[in-house]
Each structure stands twice: as C-alpha cells, then as structure tokens.
Amino acid sequence: MSTTMGTTRVFNVHARNWSTQASSSDSSGSEKNDDNEKKLTVSSYWGVTPPSITKADGSAWKWNCFRPWEAYQADTSIDVKKHHTPVTWNDKFAYWIVQACKYPAHLYFQRKHIHHAVLLETVAAVPGMVGGMLLHTKSLRRFEQSGGWIKALLEEAENERMHLMTFIDIYRPKWHERALVFAVQGVFFNAYFLAYLASPKLAHRITGYLEEEAVSSYTEFLNDLENGAMEDIPAPAIAIDYWCLPQNSTLKDVVRVIRADEAHHRDINHFASDIHCQGHELKEYPAPIGYH
Ligand SMILES: [Fe+2]
Ligand SMILES: [Fe+2]
To answer: Where do the TM regions start and end (predicted)?
Structure first.
C-alpha cells in the first residue's frame, strides 16, 4: 500500500481551466468542438476546474472514473483457497443462500466466463454500497464514528464496479442480459438492505460466501485461459492503469488480480461477521481501509 501511495506522487496533477484548453485545441472550428466549448464554459462559470492529469511519462490520463492515486498493485499472494467453515446456524443459513443462488447462475452461463463475470460484478458491487450507506446513516443517528468501516465498504463497492468497467470493455451485455441484471439488482438490493438492517452479521457472512464463490468462478476462468480452452486477449487499457499492470498484460493477468481482489473482499466480510458474532460492533475494530 505504502509503495502504491509512494508511486502516485510521481503523477503530475494540476488544475486547468477547461474552456482555455478547449479553445486552444479548436483549430477546425467544427460544430462538435463548439458544443464541447459551450459545455466547458458552463462548467468554468461555476469555478469547477477539473484537473488535467498526466502519467509519469507525460501522456494524458484518460480515465475520469478513477484517478492515478486510486490505482494499486493487487496482492496476488493471498490464499485463494481459504474457506470459512459454516458452524453456527447463521453461517449455515448464509452458506446455503449463496449455494442456492450459485447453481442457477452456473446453469445459465455455463462456461461463458465473461458473461458470468459481468452479471456477478453487478451483484457483487451492491453489498459494500448498502452496508456503507447503512453504517453512514447509523453514524449520523447515533452521533458516533464508524471506525473507518463506511470507507472500507464503499471502497469495496467501488473496486467491484471497476471490475465491471473492465469487463464491459471486453463484452457489452445483450438486451436479455441487461434485463436480467435489472431484475436481479431490484431483488438483491432490497433483500440485502433488509438483511443488513436485520442482521449485519448474517449480511456480512452472506457476502463472505459470495466472495468465496467469486474466487472459485475466477479460478475456473483462469484455468480455461491457462489450458487454452479460452483465447487469451490483450488486457483492456483501463485494467492496465487501474492495477498498474505491465503494458503487455493479457486477460489472464487481469483475471488473476481480480481474483485477488475478491479474496480480499472475502476476508473483510468474514472478519466483519466474526466481529459481530463475538458480540462486538464494527466501530470497535479499525477497518481494513486500502486492504488489497
Ligand atoms: Fe468483483
Ligand atoms: Fe468481491
């Protein structure tokens, strides 16, 4: 983490007025550039000056959805086989809920790994946001700190969404997959919201098992890439910048770092559930912020 933070210092970041930038590059006077200038002028009227960011090599930073200081190198040495053995009723219930959801998904997608990953990520990005939002409102209601857990859970949600942004660079879902995502999100968001309100220890345990399944799905994905059952392709540019990967990285490298992320989410959520199971509150234990 400290290395990553250290690395980000080399990026050149400075504020620049967008309208100035647009007029200097507008030599053709085309309609498109006029439109852009109009938009950017409105933006600068409010004094909002988005920073112009460059990479260490001087080239422009092309992503607005994340910035260089949010990029990191995933710790791929994490144990991807770790499993929380369900012992209590709470654990067993959480485990079987995830098992019951897993089989229809495997049946539907079979070995279409990228299609499966897109759906999986739209679901996986929900628990962190719901948990973070509920801890946020709890902190406001009770006039107390969260111990950093709001940030840790929102970081997880953001990280999951970046997984999705990576995969949609490779595959754009068809209309029926979008409809499925829409329906699943409607059900899952509300169900998880109610589950977290009723029992955070159950909700975190469910997410812990969901993450275990994500690790196992990405392991199958990786195996098919390694044994040639699936063609390996160059890594999307967004993934190279987000995980600080070498320029010649391939999908295999991307799946490896995403799997490592999922293993970290697994640990965070089982840890959170354990805190509750032992009769404590999350705020009593410092949250694992920046745990990659
Ligand atoms: Fe993910
Ligand atoms: Fe995850």
So the answer is: 179-198
